[in-house]
Amino acid sequence: MGRKALLDVLGNRMPERRPIWFMRQAGRYLPEYRELRRQAGSFLDLCYSPKLASQVTMQPIDRYDLDAAILFSDILVVPQAMGVGLRFAEGEGPILDVVADMEAVARLKPVRDARQVAAVCETVSRTRQGLPGHVALIGFCGAPWTVASYMIEGGSSEERLKARLAAHRRPSWYDALMDRLIEASCDYLSAQVMAGAEVLQIFDSWAGDLTGDVFEDSVIGPIRTIVDELRLRHPSVPVIVFARGAGSKHGRVAAETGAQAVGIEQAVELASVLKAVPEHCAVQGNLDPVALLAGGERLARRVENVIREVPLHRHVFNLGHGIKPATDPAHVAEAIAAVRAADTRRP
Amino acid sequence: MGRKALLDVLGNRMPERRPIWFMRQAGRYLPEYRELRRQAGSFLDLCYSPKLASQVTMQPIDRYDLDAAILFSDILVVPQAMGVGLRFAEGEGPILDVVADMEAVARLKPVRDARQVAAVCETVSRTRQGLPGHVALIGFCGAPWTVASYMIEGGSSEERLKARLAAHRRPSWYDALMDRLIEASCDYLSAQVMAGAEVLQIFDSWAGDLTGDVFEDSVIGPIRTIVDELRLRHPSVPVIVFARGAGSKHGRVAAETGAQAVGIEQAVELASVLKAVPEHCAVQGNLDPVALLAGGERLARRVENVIREVPLHRHVFNLGHGIKPATDPAHVAEAIAAVRAADTRRP
Q1: ipTM of the shown complex
Q2: What's the whole-model pTM score?
Q3: CB count, 10 Å around CB of B118?
């Protein structure tokens, strides 16, 4: 099996089988990940060790019958590469220098020559060398809005109100920050492609924070600019846009960003999106991560219900959000088997 | 103006104007609320003082040109009335006795004779007496799933995973708990109607946690049972169902629960729901609370954009979620003025 099912679906061709990958498939629910994490020291040490990070990226590929590996990294690599102080406090999430005025924005550096980007690219190229022929390698970054929200808040925040207010009011530093993040994202993703990434995913985890023209300005607009620029630099590399929480707006995200696929959160049924998405665009998702966590005999039925909503050639099977860390690794194997079995039974 | 615009829209009649109310319109953003809250002592003391709670309910009516007052209370009145220990820790949210096994469920009491219910009903009847003729009084409760999630978790929880797992796996104590909550909700809402509530809203704040058949079992099913029972007891009292986060499933919520209106979170555009909702059902929402918080010249435009999506006779203007406590009360007046102005300009 040398053809890559993920590339086929993203290229609008009939795949040999339904491509499957899982958000956070390399992560805490895997005992082999927890073991490597212990060896590495901090989370960031793990991200920036090409040897260990590529091992982590490969762990789910070694264990499961998947169609894609996704680079093990973090969306906050970009602000760190721009010179923003970043650390992960145990059990508290990321803590960043606050970037919420023009002085702080002016201090941001281009990412092109950052050692963090070099380390990530080495992880990409090491991983690519070890991948089975049918498995595609996905590179990624956070979308400008989501990354900006961490920079403006100085870390995680339940409601991100400071960032959301900035997106509504658009002070000049906010627009400047978004411009810098667009540029950095293009350079970062482009570097990943040159290192061997075959598909790119842009994660806008907090897209659901924004609505109306604010959604257009801070979600759709910046992502479209990135996708356009990548198309110029790397015409054959498909892009998946995951604007999590876009609700009724995924069709517009697909049509207006020019993505080859859109990721869909589990609150939105894939069938409802399919009608609004251009013919050439696939949908990705969207099994409920809690269905995967719960397991049991209902899991196969839940998988089948997702599959039934989308034809094979327009679907990338995935979750609607990341794997919960408490998930039993056996459930992942069961979900994959359920996808394969359901597709085999199809006429 | 003696006709109630809210009752007209919910009764499928052309209203004299577009009815407006705001979720959490009686609350922390109002200085007069913060003043009464100081006098009352604890939050629960305020909820259970009919004199003060009816004053709080009236505060936004005195200040703004609204079409409905909503009872000032809390969705956790029901578990407390069932005998579950409840307190609000300052800055921490509610803390409840955990109800997550059959023994705890068996200890739950009917709410009919609870002093908490009597106090709430006295608030309703006091408020009703003081209301201007064109303002409808809304009573409410939390939906079984949302209330159960607090009981199972013992309070607020970021992800509600214990509750969501129970909804997926449906141990017998979970089904028994949901049955008890359905019964208690019917009795509680019915008591509010007898005390003077003219409209009822069922808040399923965490409906977005659930998907697929789990959504049907724990969101749609229990709410439908409550709406059916209320229809028998009080045929003329309309019910608004707010299944927050239902995403692409609001049409089904409307059709299958028999609600007179469905509330829509701001991530979902009203126009997209309207197509899927039965003709006799209205939609409620869904200005972004952060647009209201941000204010400024964009606010009127945002209000107009919401209004443009729905014809007058099928729309209850509201937010997509509660008012943020930091909102300037002047912004609320501006939003109301923008609704009235936009409707006047319509042909």
Answers
A1: 0.94
A2: 0.96
A3: 16
